[in-house]
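Ticket reopened. Same input as before:
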Amino acid sequence: MSPMSRAKSSVFIAESLDGFIARADGAIDWLALVEREGEDYGFAAFFETVDAMVMGRTTYNTVLGFDAWPYGAKRCVVLTHDPPSARHGEEFYAGDVTALAERLGAEGARHVYVDGGEVISQFFAAGLIDEVTVSIIPVVLGDGLRLTRRIGRDVRLELVQHRAFDSGLVRLTYRVA
Amino acid sequence: MSPMSRAKSSVFIAESLDGFIARADGAIDWLALVEREGEDYGFAAFFETVDAMVMGRTTYNTVLGFDAWPYGAKRCVVLTHDPPSARHGEEFYAGDVTALAERLGAEGARHVYVDGGEVISQFFAAGLIDEVTVSIIPVVLGDGLRLTRRIGRDVRLELVQHRAFDSGLVRLTYRVA
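Engineering reply: fixed in the latest deploy. New output:
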């Protein structure tokens, strides 16, 4: 299979200034600090460009606790070794992420949204991430789930865009170098 | 002692996009990614405003490995329970950081530079940090020493300044809310 068949993969995530994407129990209540009427910090525009998403089990469990499934009919793959029953058409996968990225590309996905620290780290480790957007929330949490773990190598980035919002959120977009 | 006697305390540090301030062994070789002739990202200007600095033992050991002691005659306190012999006039301290901050203020310090993840976390936990400048380096490390640990509470920040440099470094300055 040609490498060109792999879909572009992007991260779009918020983190505290000290690099946490959730509290230790997965809670993201602290994102309320930057909630502003009519301001989604570019998420909807980003999400429109995405054909499929891949998330980890922790992210999935957090999302299941929301009032509504936020991903509509978008193709959604949850990485887990212990798949529950699908409730919103989501698929479950356990295995090599490079094979998954190639399969998604072969099946028509051109842009994949990768979410959750564990899955993001696996994609980074496999050299599969192309673009990273991180919104830095103006808070220090001191503990929690990290954006990355055990990548095993440095990933160099090129800053593409930066923007500060009235709430104090700073959105940084990078291309993987 | 009046709380007004406490010196202002600031953090001025670089971190990877995923929130690490050093590799697991303390190495900061990855800062070379943003080294540019004649560009110190504001460090010298910041350092001039500082009367005293407080650092942890890991930071101290890293600095001792530099070709020259970088802090001149600036008052320097190293937090450690196992003090070695001073080589550059530095003092060693083990104990409550609030008492230390008050003592530094009482002895004339008006602006204290707090460095090293462990010490920064202790100062955050004690509510002693007033300003935080973080330079986000365009790299993902995946593992290392975190900016914070075990603070035990959220620290809310107000964005004061943000600036992107040609190297891709983004410098963010916050006031503690």
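Chain A is about 20% helix and 35% strand. Chain A touches chain B through 41 residues (CB under 8 Å). Please confirm and we'll close it.
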